[in-house]
Write a structure and sequence with these properties.
It is flat and about 65 Å long. It contains nine helices and 23 strands. The longest helix is centred in the N-terminal third of the chain and has 20 residues. It has about 450 residues and is an alpha/beta fold.
């Protein structure tokens, strides 16, 4: 006998009637926090001190999420977003909050997370590292979407919490030369016969010019390739194609490799498409300088740089003669870092490849070090921090792009005899909730 079941309604996704709520604070992800029926309600786009009209979109046992419908009483810190795409584009999420308040909120969120999870506060809270809040990004990846009906390809960023592509004509957080290029590049892509084979587009403003990398899923025709090459030459661009295997081909720009340098050094850090670099050039300069100042490496010291990438911190740490060991999980970046060190004539720097989330006990570089720097991805460096007992650096600088990971890892570090001496917010990503931070730990006597 057939049995029929009636599906239970998904109460967690049911929409509520309209509610008027008072927002008391922001969480570390930039959402407004209110309370309703004994539960926390997270509201994207709402600010502390505001009364807002919302509709609950998700209801869990301990919290709810709501959609902002109307700001009934606005905060004095609220500003009109400058970007015409702000309501749809998922790239920025704090343009409605003035820049000074953005930075104050981020610094507070950082300190509160560390205090909550690591049960400690820094001896010194340092000044926030920041620069211009607009046109700061020197690198961005734009998405494409090909409409099979209209044969039009859209170029832009993903919508908030969606895979939809928001077509844009400019971006006020992108470096001006990159933002100005977008409409002309979009027009060019729509002239290609093989535009349905285009994937993402990577734009980079390096010290030696603009680099445009087009991801393609199949080979383009000679005519399309010629169009791209001519566009690159006429706009003085380095135009590259990248296939599914990650191989790149230069169409214009004489095959040069992008690089960036530092104000106080002749070193050139070359990189390739796919290599990680910090997107905010001026703030990266200040961040690296502060890390070197905090560690103050001496010529007779051994410094370990974990998650070293292409040598962003390794090379500056070695400029005064310290022995620096850089370790990275991506083999291609280890190779590039080695090349960069040789190009800078730094012979006391060596790089190794290792999975820094695995057991490190047998690694050839593991041993006593005087000082240490780590700059992990958002997941943090929990496994690496468990090796501190063997390494025993006197000073450790932790650079983090996720305050929650820093807070969690700080607990591990403190349990191994370290003290949190300094902490600083690094405003690497203005107009967004994302924050970089830097903490200095010192081993107790």
């Amino acid at each position: 006998m057939a049995q029929f079941f009636k599906a239970k309604p998904n109460r967690s996704k049911q929409l509520s009637s309209k509610l008027s709520l008072n927002v008391t604070q922001l969480d570390h992800l930039g959402a407004g926090i209110a309370h309703h029926q004994g539960k926390i309600v997270f509201i994207n786009g709402a600010l502390p001190g505001e009364t807002v009209q919302v509709q609950l979109t998700e209801q869990k046992k301990k919290f709810s999420r709501a959609k902002l419908l109307k700001v009934e009483t606005a905060s004095s810190e609220r500003v009109a977003p400058l970007c015409v795409h702000y309501e749809k584009c998922g790239g920025c999420d704090l343009q409605h909050l003035n820049v000074e308040s953005q930075r104050a909120h981020k610094a507070k969120a950082l300190q509160e997370l560390v205090a909550k999870f690591a049960q400690t506060t820094a001896s010194q809270v340092c000044e926030t590292l920041s620069d211009s809040p607009w046109h700061y990004r020197r690198r961005a990846r734009l998405a494409t979407w090909f409409d099979k009906k209209t044969k039009h390809i859209s170029l832009g960023f993903r919508a908030n919490s969606s895979s939809d592509v928001v077509e844009i004509q400019s971006c006020i957080v992108l470096a001006k030369p990159l933002s100005a290029l977008i409409p002309e590049l979009a027009f060019l892509l729509n002239q290609l016969s093989g535009k349905n084979a285009l994937g993402h587009v990577e734009l980079t403003l390096a010290d030696n010019g603009i680099f445009v990398v087009l991801r393609v899923t199949k080979a383009l025709s000679d005519k399309d390739r010629q169009r791209l090459a001519e566009f690159g030459e006429s706009h003085t661009l380095n135009m590259l194609l990248q296939n599914d295997d990650g191989n790149t081909e230069h169409l214009s720009g004489h095959g040069q490799q992008p690089f960036y340098g530092f104000n106080d050094s002749d070193a050139e850090l070359k990189f390739s498409a796919g290599n990680f670099i910090q997107v905010n050039a001026s703030v990266n300069q200040a961040m690296v300088k502060q890390a070197v100042d905090w560690l103050a490496p001496q010529a007779d010291e051994r410094v370990l740089d974990l998650f070293c990438g292409i040598g962003n911190f390794s090379l500056p740490l070695a400029k005064d003669g310290a022995e620096v060991i850089g370790v990275e999980g991506v083999p291609a970046m280890v190779e590039q870092a080695t090349i960069n060190a040789k190009g800078a004539a730094l012979d006391k720097v060596s790089f190794y490849h290792a999975d820094l989330s695995a057991d490190l006990s047998q690694q050839p570089w593991l041993g006593k070090v005087d000082k240490m720097l780590i700059d992990p991805a958002r997941a943090g460096a929990y496994e690496s921090m468990l090796s501190l007992k063997k390494l025993k650096p006197q000073a450790l600088v932790y650079v983090s792009c996720n305050p929650a990971s820093l807070a969690r890892d700080s607990e591990v570090i403190l349990k191994q005899g370290y003290t949190l001496k300094k902490i600083a917010m690094v405003d690497m990503f203005p107009q967004t909730h994302h924050l970089e931070s830097m903490a200095l730990f010192e081993l107790g006597k």
